[in-house]
Amino acid sequence: MFALSGRVNNVGLVEVPMGISLGDIVYDIGGGIPRGRKLKAVQTGGPLGGCIPASLLNTPIDYDSLTAAGATMGSGGMIVVDEDTCMVELAKFFLTFAAAESCGQCTPCRVGGKQLLDVLTRITEGQGTEADLDRIEELSHVMAESSLCALGKLTPSPVRSTVTHFRDEYLAHIREKRCPAGKCTALVHSRCVNSCPAGVDVPAYLMLVSEGKYAEALAVHRERNPFAAICGRVCPAFCEQKCRRGEIDAPVAVRQVKRFMADQELKNPWTPERMPSKGKKVAVIGAGPAGLTAALRLAQWGYEVVVHEALPVAGGMMAVGIPDYRLPKDVLRAEIEHIKRAGVEIRLNSRLGRDFTLEQLMERDGCDAVVLAIGAHKDRRLRISGEDREGVISATGFLRDVALGNPPRLEGKRVAVVGGGDTAVDAARTAIRLGASEAHLVYRRTRDEMPALAEEVDAAEAEGVRLHFLANPSAIIGNGRVESMRCVRQVLGEFDESGRRKPVPTPGAEFDLEVDVVIPAIGQVPDVSGLAPAADGQARALAVDATMMTSLPGVFAAGDAVTGPATVVEAVGQGNRVALFVDAYLQGKQPAPEKMWPDYRVLDLTYEMEAYASVPRAKAGELPPEARARDFLEIEQALSEEVARREARRCLRCDLERRKAE
Ligand SMILES: Cc1cc2nc3c(=O)[nH]c(=O)nc-3n(C[C@H](O)[C@H](O)[C@H](O)COP(=O)(O)OP(=O)(O)OC[C@H]3O[C@@H](n4cnc5c(N)ncnc54)[C@H](O)[C@@H]3O)c2cc1C
Q1: Is there an atom of ligand 1 within 6 Å of 351 CB?
Q2: How far apart are CA 133 and CA 115, in angstroms?
Q3: For 498-555, what is each residue's pLDDT tens digit?
Q4: Same domain, yes or no, for 406 and 484?
Q5: Candidate of 259, 331, 422 to mutate for ligand 1, largest count of ligand atoms within 8 Å of Cβ
Q6: What's the CA-to-centroid distance between 70 and ligand 1, angstroms?
Q7: Which secondary structure element, helix H or strand E, spans residue 87, and what is its range?
Q8: Residue 595, in any domain of the structure
Q9: Quick one: which of 283, 286, 308 has its CA closest to 298?
Q10: In this structure, which residue's CA is closest to atom 35 in ligand 1?
Q11: CA distances (Å), origin 112, targets 105, 118, 120, 256
Q12: What is the pLDDT of residues 48-88, one digit of tens each?
C-alpha cells in the first residue's frame, strides 16, 4: 500500500502487488505527469527514504530492489517529482525535517544532520564547492555507520541518493551557480531567464519592447545571444515553457515578440564593441551558432579570431539544416554580418582534417587556443538490410544539398522519412516542396513522444505529410533501387533509460510502404574523421572536462559536437561558455562569468499590469498550407507592432520579486 502523491495525475492510496514496476505505478495507476512535464524521480519511503531517477522506472517494487536503487519501502510514501523540482532543494527539505527530529543523544546524528544541512544550504545559495560533494559523502558515511538508531543512520539517505543519481544538478549549482529546475531563489533571476540556455534577460527586453525601445531591447538580447532574429524564428523557447503566465492562461509569446523586435533592427548594422587587443590568436572550427558565438565573444574580448568552415557557407545547421520556410537565408546572413563586423574572419571551404591539421594551427599559424564547434553532421544508420540500395539518402546530406542549391529530383517520387525529430520533419516537408507525390514520416514511438516541436508536426501534416506512429522499418526492398520499405508495428514495452516506454516489435505485424526514396533521420553524431587520431589510432571523441577543454591542452569543444544534436540557443549558450573558459585559460585566471556579461537589470514597470490580465496570448499569422506547401517562402508572419507591444505587457515581471528580495 503506497500513498502516491506529488506531480502525478491520480493521487491517493494505491494497493499494488509486490514486484510491479515503479513505472507502472506512475503511468498506469497514477496516470502520468500533469501538463506534459517530464518525470524526474520518485521519492519513496518518507523523509528517510531516497529518490529513484526516471532512468530506473523498471525497478520492481520489493524491499531489495528499492534498497539497491538507493531508496526504501519505509513508510509507503511515494512522491513523484517532475522537471520543475530541484533535487538539491528536495534533499534539503527532507534533511531539514530529519535533522529537527534528532533527539540529540548521539553526536553523529545531532551534529552530522546539522552539518549536512549547512552544506546543502551553501549549495542552494550558490556558495558550494566541489569539495562539498566529498564532504556530503564523508558525513553521510559516518552518520550511517555510527548513529545509534535508524533515524541517524537514514537521515543522509535523501541526500546520498540525490548526489548519486543527480550529480549533474549539484554540479550545475556549484560550477555554474545555476539551478536547472529554477527553484533555488538565490540563483534564479526569473524562471524564463533561468531556463534560457544562453541566459538572455527576457523580462528586460520585453519591458523595453513594450515601451517601443526596440534597439535598446535588442542590445539587451545581444549581450548574451547575438542571433535574435534567428531565434525569433526557430527557438523552441524554453523560456515560454517555464513562463509563470502559462500557469494562469498561456505563456507570453516571447519568441514572436523577439522576432518582431529583431526584425525592426535587422537592417541597421551592428558593430559589437571590442576591448583592446590581447595579442593572442584563437582558431574556431565550424561556423555554426556555437562557433560563431564563441568567435564573437573572443573577438569582443580582444582576441584575433579566425573561423574555419568546411562548407561554402557560414551558419552551420542554421544554413544547411533548417529550411528557408522557417529561417530565410537573408535573416541568417544579416546576423552573421554582425559577427564579422566584430573583426571575426570567416574562412569558407576550409576543413580541418582535409585542408589543415590541429598541429598546423598551433605550430604554423601560432594559435594559442582552438575551439572545435563542428556540430553533429553524420547521420546514424538504420542498420537494416537494403540500406545501401540506390534511393536511400542521408537526411543531413539531403537538406544540405537543397540549401546549397543542388536539390535531388523528387518530382512525382514517393518518399519515406524515418525519425521523429526536427531533421525528420524538415526532410519530409522539404520533400513535399520538391514535388514528391507522397511523403511518409515513420516514427517508432507515439506522436506525443516526438522530439520535434508539436507545431512543426501539425504543420507537416497540414502540408500533406502522412504520419505513421509506432512503426519501425525492418528492411528496404528493391531490385537495386528502393521499391518499398518494410515496417513492423511496435508496442510500448518496458521503460528505457530516458524514462519512456521502449517500442518493441510486434511479431508478424508488418506492412510495406511502396516508396522510391528512403531518408533515414534517426539522429546525428559528430564527424570526427578529420581529427588527429589518438595514440591508439582511434578518432578522438569530443569529450570535454569541466572547463570544456578536450584531452588536448588548449583545444576546447562546444555545441552539438559535445552535447549531441540540440538547438540553436543551446549552441549559443555553449559558445558563450567556451569563450569564457578559453579566455580564462589564455589569461591564466579563474573563469568569472559575472565579469564578462552585464548584470541582469530589473527595469521599472511603466504601465498598469492589471490592464493586461485578460489579454489572450498573441498568435502570429501564417501562410495557409495550400499556399506554402510547394515553395520555400517563410511561413510564419511577424506580429504587428501594436500586438507585439501588447504581448510584451502580458509578462508578469517575475524579476520584480528579485528587487524586493534585494
Ligand atoms: C533539419 C534541422 C532542423 C533544425 N531545427 C531547429 C530549430 O527549429 N530550432 C533550433 O533551435 N534548432 C534546430 N536545429 C538544431 C540546430 O540547428 C543545431 O543544434 C545547431 O545549429 C548546432 O550548432 P553548432 O554550432 O554546434 O553546430 P552546427 O550548426 O552543426 O555547425 C557546425 C559547423 O562546423 C562545420 N564543420 C564540421 N566539421 C568541420 C571541419 N572538420 N572543419 C571545418 N568545419 C567543420 C560544419 O560544416 C558546420 O557548418 C535543427 C537542426 C537540423 C539539422
Answers
A1: yes
A2: 13
A3: 889 999 999 889 999 999 999 999 999 888 876 654 444 444 448 899 999 999 999 9
A4: yes
A5: 422
A6: 39
A7: helix 87-101
A8: no
A9: 283
A10: 286
A11: 12, 10, 12, 51
A12: 999 999 999 999 999 999 999 989 888 899 999 999 999 99
**Is 325 within a domain?**
no
Distance 204 CA to ligand 1 centre (A): 29
Q: What is the pLDDT of residues 324-353, one digit of tens each?
A: 999 999 999 999 999 999 999 999 999 999
Q: Are residues 483 and 580 in the same domain?
A: no
Ligand 1 within 6 A of CB of 197: no
User: 327 CB less than 6 Å from ligand 1?
Assistant: no
Regarding the beta carbon of 158 and ligand 1, being less than 6 Å apart is answered no
Confidence of residue 654 (pLDDT cuts 50, 70, 90): very high
For the chain, report the end-to-end CA distance as a whole number of angstroms. Answer: 46
Query: Of all helices (H) and strands (E), which one includes residue 53?
Result: strand 50-53
Pocket test for ligand 1, best of 239, 254, 258, 568 (most atoms within 8 A of CB): 568
In degrees, rounded to 5, the angle at the alpha carbon of residue 348 between the alpha carbons of residues 345 and 349 is 150
Q: Is the minimum distance from the CB of 321 to ligand 1 under 6 angstroms?
A: yes
pLDDT at 661: 66
User: Residue 531 belongs to what domain range?
Assistant: 281-309+332-377+526-590
Distance of alpha carbon 348 from alpha carbon 116, whole angstroms: 54
Stretch (H or E) spanning 473: strand 471-477
Mutate to test the pocket of ligand 1, among 567, 569, 570, 574 (most ligand atoms within 8 A of CB): 567
Q: Are residues 13 and 129 in the same domain?
A: yes
Closest CA to ligand 1's atom 1:
423
Clarify whether residues 531 and 581 are in a common domain.
yes
Dmax (CA) for the chain in angstroms is: 82
Are both 34 and 140 inside the same structural domain? yes
Residue 379 in contact with ligand 1 by CB distance below 6 A: no
Domain count, the chain: 4
What pLDDT band is residue 659 in, cutting at 50, 70 and 90?
A: confident
Cβ–ligand 1 contact at 234 (below 6 Å): yes
Last residue within a domain, chosen from 150, 166, 187: 187
Q: Which residues contact 107 (CB under 8 A, 6 or more apart)?
A: none
What's the CA gap between 426 and 395, in Å, rounded? Answer: 9
Q: 571 in ligand 1 pocket by Cβ < 6 Å?
A: yes
Q: What is the pTM of this model?
A: 0.94
C-alpha 476/C-alpha 394 separation (Å) is: 14
Question: Phi-psi category of 549—alpha, beta or left, where left has phi over 0 and alpha has psi -120 to 50?
Answer: beta
Please name the residue that has the C-alpha cell 531516497. Answer: 50
Cβ 108 under 6 angstroms from ligand 1: no
What CATH number corresponds to the domain at position 496? 3.50.50.60
Verify that 67 and 200 share a domain, yes or no. Answer: no
Same domain, 21 and 93: yes
